[in-house]
Design brief:
It contains nine helices and 24 strands. With 537 residues, the protein is of the alpha/beta class.
Length: 537
């Protein structure tokens, strides 16, 4: 059995393996509510065991970060009914008899008070009493305990109560997950319970002391607010799907259910199809390199001049907007830029490393389960703010491209309306809105690199359509006319940041390489993504 300790780092989470190592970091699987399956699969040939149920049930007591660290191997799908599952992820103390453990995780919460508080410790029995609405001892002065919404059910598993935030006791104040700091709400009568990785500088962490009856009454080990969670399965399924199948996306099952029973199809909307392949070994040219942090392909853009701004003669038949003028020659030092837009898989690696915050919104236009769903690992990450995109690019050793870098990579040294030339977009060149047909080509994002005929002169893909891409520049409608022609980086300050490239739901006019728009940096729009630029050395 493999055992893990998971903690949150800087608002994100990381996985450290104790006693073994996982291939690559796990990526959240996501998914909507499942229906109860009726199918089962025969046990491996040559055994007398009854049919097994290749369905995974995840207890509400499990923190979402742990649940999202578990893969669905080929032939397995999620289910909403514990009785229908042959694989269960739950508190270790809830493990049914006769099931075999596959992996374990530890997850720790702490109680925090304001930094100025004189309190040093808290008896666990007093905390449980307060949670139950019966303040006692060191919690008599408290009026409320603050917690994050996604932590409520896991804390119910540790402290007792009824699952569902709608059932939270009156003295438990449930807060939105995106709130980063409770410091201004803590007082002598209001403390908080947070995951250990979300402790802020303004918090004072209280030592939780064990009462003599705590272990026998609550079944927890070591620390009262540290849960131990286990993935366990029927014996036959444990033989078919070892620990690596659940903790490494590189694992491919060789176990095949008996032919007398059909292989079950996923019951969770959007989960990966059984047998789906994911290519992980990119092919690169002499002008490309593979980035170590996330496996991205970077394309070398040579130093030199290019024509920046709108050229009416090469603008797809459209007029020029004022903030696209004047057309002028600009010099840029050599740099690299991502061949593809940053994907869900890549962004999840940054979250796991603790360098990026987890996404607030994990759906796309038509897919309730998108970010964290293996089916869409190679699709562009969306609903990222400018600061989240910038954090990712810094994590991989680069930055968001300047508007000038983005534009040169999009159309090359000469003026062209689109990466491929002056021809208007069509659904074979880019994922945009098809004005002739009066409908979107896809109506949602496409897998990155799906339009090789729409490549730029440097071979950069998806520079027109798919998703809008954040640039590093602040927006100023008159900046282009200020005469900066050597490595321009945009205004020194502003209120909005620039985006380029159009998206799947915008017309061909907005997919032009020189078209720019501007948005508030903290926008989380499902048609917004990004790619990174980097040093040429």
């Amino acid at each position: 059995m493999k055992r893990f300790f998971i903690t949150i780092l800087s608002g994100a989470w990381a996985v450290a393996l104790l006693g073994g190592c996982v291939g690559e970091p796990a990526i959240p699987v996501g998914g909507a509510n499942a229906t109860t399956p009726s199918a089962s699969v025969s046990a491996p040939a040559g055994t007398d065991a009854p049919p097994v149920k290749p369905f995974l049930w995840i207890s509400p007591f499990v923190p979402s970060d742990i649940a999202n660290a578990v893969y669905l191997p080929q032939g397995v799908s999620k289910v909403g009914d514990k009785a229908s599952a042959g694989i269960i992820l739950d508190l270790k103390k809830n493990k049914p008899a006769g099931m075999q453990g596959l992996a374990e995780w530890d997850w720790k919460y702490v109680v925090v008070a304001p930094q100025w508080s004189f309190r040093e410790d808290l008896a666990i029995g007093d905390l449980v009493s307060f949670w139950e609405g019966k303040p006692f001892g060191s919690t008599r002065q408290l009026l409320s305990i603050l917690i994050y919404e996604k932590d409520y059910d896991p804390l119910v598993g540790l402290l007792g109560g009824e699952v569902g935030v709608e059932n939270a006791p009156a003295q438990v104040k449930v807060m939105q997950d995106q709130v980063n700091d409770f410091s201004d709400q803590l007082s002598s009568s209001a403390w908080a319970i947070v995951p250990v990785g979300r402790v802020q500088a303004g918090y004072k962490v209280l030592e939780v002391t064990e009462g003599p009856d705590f272990l026998s009454n609550y079944g927890q080990a070591v620390d009262s607010l540290q849960g131990r969670y286990e993935l366990y399965a029927d014996e036959a399924l444990a033989e078919m799907f070892p620990a690596e199948a659940w903790t490494s996306f590189q694992y491919k099952s060789t176990a095949t259910p008996a032919a007398s029973q059909p292989t079950p199809t996923p019951l969770v909307a959007g989960t990966a199809e059984p047998g789906a392949e994911v290519t992980r070994t990119p092919t690169v040219t002499e002008k490309e390199r593979v980035r170590a942090a996330d496996g991205a392909i970077e394309i070398y853009i040579p130093a030199g001049e290019f024509m920046m701004g709108c050229d009416p003669a090469h603008n797809g038949g459209y007029g020029c907007f004022q903030d696209e003028l004047p057309l002028r020659e600009v010099y840029l030092d050599a740099y690299t830029i991502d061949k593809f837009e940053v994907t869900n898989r890549q962004y999840a690696l940054c979250v796991q490393a603790g360098a990026c915050p987890d996404l607030l919104y994990k759906y796309s236009e038509t897919r309730p389960s998108y970010y964290g769903n293996p089916t869409y690992d190679n699709y562009p990450v969306v609903a990222v703010s400018w600061s989240e995109a910038n954090a990712f690019c810094q994590w991989v050793g680069g930055s968001l491209p300047t508007s000038a870098q983005w534009e040169k990579a999009a159309h090359g040294e000469e003026s062209m309306a689109y990466p491929w030339g002056d021809e208007l977009p069509n659904c074979g060149l880019s994922n945009t809105f098809d004005e002739k047909a009066g409908k979107a080509c896809v109506g949602d994002t496409s897998e990155v690199g799906s339009y090789p005929d729409g490549a730029s002169p440097y071979g950069v893909l998806d520079m027109a359509g798919n998703v809008w891409e954040w640039n590093s520049d602040w927006y100023d409608p008159i900046y282009l006319g200020m005469g900066y022609t050597v490595n321009p980086t945009g205004p020194e300050q502003g209120n909005t940041r620039m985006v380029h490239g159009g998206s799947w739901d915008y017309s061909s006019a907005m997919a032009r390489s020189v078209y720019n728009s501007n948005h508030i940096p903290n926008s989380h729009l499902i048609s917004f993504g990004f790619r990174c630029a980097g040093p040429a050395n």
